[in-house]
Amino acid sequence: MSVSLGLFLSTFVLEDVALGVALALIAQGKLSFLEAFLICFSGITLGDFGLYYLGKYASMVPYLQKKIDAPSFQLALRALRENNKIDAAVVISRAVPGTRIPTYIGAGLLGFSRLRFLILTALSVSGWVLCTLYFGLALLSPFKDHLLLALLSFFILLYGLKQATFFFQNSWQRRAALHAWRRWLHFEFWPSQIFYLPIVPYYIYLSLRHGSFLLPFYAGNAFKHGGLIGESKWDFLKHLSPDASATLPAIMVKEGEAMSEIRQKLTSAGIDFPLIAKPDVGQRGFGVRVIATEGDLDSYLRLSAGAVILQRKSQFGQEAGVFYIRLPTEERGFIFSVTDKEFPFVVGDGESRLGDLILRDPRARIIAAVYFERHKAKLDFVLPPSQRFYLSECGNHCQGAVFLNGKDLASPELLGAIEGIAHGIPGFFFGRVDLRYKDAATLKNGREFEIIEVNGAGSEATHIWDSKTTLAEAYGTLFQQWQYLFRIGALVKKQGACRGPELGEFIVECARVYFRRGALKTSS
To answer: For residues 149 and 27, what is the distance between their CA atoms, to the nearest angstrom?
Structure first.
């Protein structure tokens, strides 16, 4: 009885773990297949029905109302309202990671039929539990003497199957999945958790060599945590001269700020639609959007977590990132790297659909799933002959922009212009200035460009994502970059200009940024 009760209660915490425990109990002969199925089925179904009632009565409880305002929930709720496909959402969310809780609570909040919800949930849960236990036991059978290894394999397989459901939501995603393997042939598309693994032992080596694990956090003494993690874009933008031709007017909007106040701020700053919206604390371009109307802005802000930067859209069409380094003991610095950026596009032929054009492009098809999600309403449109369709308007690699090594753009005149910007920002010794520019000639002359944002110690020399860059060259650049960062941190610490972060602060900030990034992924 205690075993059955424990398994039943575990379904309310983590159902995947509960299913794994059920498999282990069946393999050890402590439960029959039928007993395990009935316990898991009843526990998971009851938990799902609880989520439904949580949504149904959420409006009466202030604490739950705050949870309703969370970006992930609002995103799912909006999708349910707009698509009017609650039946399918209830069933499909069973297998799609991160969607079940907001979908089930949303169903209750929208007043979806209790009986219909119970029937759909019972059918989806029974199918899910039955298939999981059946195939899980098939996986366990060759590993009878290695139960822990078998369970680990089961969880890896289960996670993979759940992630794969994203690619099979419609026919376009299924076709995109056929090309997903190509990303492993190009390191620029590798998951960041894999690509940056060699940086960890190198960071430890530099820490031991310099006698401090937190030395890089001293590098930007005017910014939170040295600008290395959790940096605020506004902390850099606010130091730019408002009268300079390179400064794009921008405002910061706090979470929950009234639209009337935002409208007044935009007018005072001279910012019109379309404009650029981005999270004040963001990573790798998540959440950066071109906002065309006030209605779009309202929708964006409702789904945003934390403060947001609203900025005038640049008049220039080309984009670059100039990485600048200066030692605190030196008056002048140098350009470490220049990244030129191209916005990918496809050209119509009067016969092919947009989705087909994307799949024919050698580079675009590698991340076709990203483009298909962004342009899902236009994938079946046939582009007229010779008409360009831009797949990305933001200069972020994660959104599909093409990064090129722009070393030919570096010049003494450009260095002089960047030097003036860097000296105007207190404690800025290391970082990247992202800008829009008119053409190569004027940029090399240090003229006719506009600053999009300034990134501190947490930035990198993004020219490494050029497809012509080898993996060895990319790591060599990153290792050299970290050497400079440690060296700058040591010099700043020696000058006694600031107090570095405590280890506890570092851990808390890492956790905060990790979960903030998850929210940005959801809202993007």
So the answer is: 13
Domains in the chain (CATH in brackets) are 2-169 (no CATH), 212-340+400-523 (3.30.470)
**Positive/negative CA dihedral, 269, 271, 277, 283:** negative
DSSP state string for 411-459: -HHHHHHHHHHHHTSTT--EEEEEEEES-HHHHHTT-SEEEEEEE-TT-
Residue 397: the pLDDT is 66
- DSSP annotation of 409 reads G
Distance (Å, whole) CA 517 – CA 320: 24
Q: Model-level pTM greater than 0.85?
A: no
Q: Residue 138, Cβ neighbours under 10 Å: how many?
A: 9
The whole-angstrom separation of Cα 234 and Cα 453 is 9
Question: Regarding beta strands 275-279 and 308-312, do their DSSP bridges make them parallel or antiparallel, or are they unpaired?
Answer: antiparallel
Lowest mean pLDDT across 68-82, 192-206, 389-403, 497-511? 497-511
Q: What is the CA radius of gyration of the chain?
A: 26
Per-residue pLDDT tens over the stretch 200-241: 999 999 999 999 888 888 887 767 666 677 678 898 999 999
pLDDT tens readout for residues 97-110: 666 777 787 788 77
Nearest to 122 by CA among 56, 22, 48: 48
Q: How confident is the model at residue 408 (pLDDT cuts 50, 70, 90)?
A: very high
Peptide bond into 274 cis (omega under 30): yes
Q: What is the pLDDT of residue 521?
A: 39
Q: Enumerate residues 6+ apart whose C-beta is below 8 A from 402.
A: 341, 342, 343, 344, 363
Asked if residue 319 lies in contact with residue 395, where contact means CB atoms within 8 angstroms, the answer is yes
In 3-state terms, what secondary structure has residue 299?
helix
